[in-house]
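Technical annex, item 7. During the second reporting period the consortium partners agreed on a shared format for inverse folding records so that results from different sites could be compared directly. Each record opens with the tokenized structure and is followed by the designed sequence. A conforming record, contributed by the partner at site C, is shown below for reference.
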């Protein structure tokens, strides 16, 4: 299957999606050309789902950055919190930058089925994101209790509460899992902004990339649909929207 054919499948749902390989290439081009930095001057922190498919489909060029520091748990929510943000902020080169890539993920099979992918070595499709799908199933069947957060399944309970708070919006949508993923993105984005505001960084820039990470079958790969690409100049405090550079 050619790249354009793969993109045609994904762009039915995410019109601005790029292959993750092209995506990271464009980001590296930007930081080299516009910020005059090398990837080795930048520490990458990602807040993406701990699902193994994200490690399998992680783009090789991302390893040119320092890290990655792993912030995300189930479906990418930054469960390492303020302590995690402060930890990797203290690891950044003084003349460099922090690059935070974050967002939930969703599967789209080569047949265009939302919420499923065919993984390596499996004959049948499996869920992606399984946590979001599981929480959505509980939401659909009135199985989520408000404020029910336990130590035994803390991360899943947080995802459930995020969906519960937007129950009507999700269940009344055309594709509930798609809408649930949008809701989870907004919760992640809000939390990332809160963590940034409460953290001190001793470097030049914060690079923020918020996206929906889209996984597909093992022979198709992964994609990213950008929702936020901003650069914060820590000397001036200016926040610049540079999302056009990923078009």
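Designed sequence (site C submission):
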């Amino acid at each position: 299957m050619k790249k354009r054919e793969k993109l045609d499948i994904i762009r039915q749902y995410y019109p601005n999606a790029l292959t993750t390989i092209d995506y990271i290439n464009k980001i590296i081009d930007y930081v080299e050309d516009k910020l005059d930095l090398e990837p080795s001057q930048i520490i990458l922190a990602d807040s993406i789902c701990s699902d193994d498919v994200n490690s399998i489909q992680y783009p090789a060029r991302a390893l040119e950055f320092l890290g990655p520091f792993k912030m995300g748990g189930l479906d990418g929510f930054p469960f390492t919190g303020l302590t995690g943000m402060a930890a990797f902020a203290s690891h950044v080169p003084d003349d460099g930058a922090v690059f935070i890539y974050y967002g939930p993920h969703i599967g789209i099979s080569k047949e265009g089925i939302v919420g499923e992918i065919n993984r390596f070595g499996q004959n049948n499709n499996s869920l992606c994101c399984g946590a979001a799908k599981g929480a959505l199933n509980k939401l659909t069947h009135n199985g989520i209790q408000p404020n029910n957060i336990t130590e035994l399944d803390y991360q899943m309970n947080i995802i459930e509460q995020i969906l519960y708070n937007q129950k009507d919006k999700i269940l009344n949508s055309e594709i509930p899992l798609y809408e649930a993923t949008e809701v989870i993105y907004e919760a992640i984005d809000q939390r990332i902004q809160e963590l940034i505001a409460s953290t001190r960084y001793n470097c030049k820039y914060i690079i923020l990339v918020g996206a929906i990470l889209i996984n597909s079958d093992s022979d198709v790969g992964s994609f990213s649909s950008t929702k936020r690409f901003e650069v914060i100049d820590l000397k001036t405090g200016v926040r610049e929207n540079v999302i056009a550079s990923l078009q």
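The mean pLDDT is 95. Residues 3-122+193-246 form one domain. All partners now use this format for quarterly exchanges.
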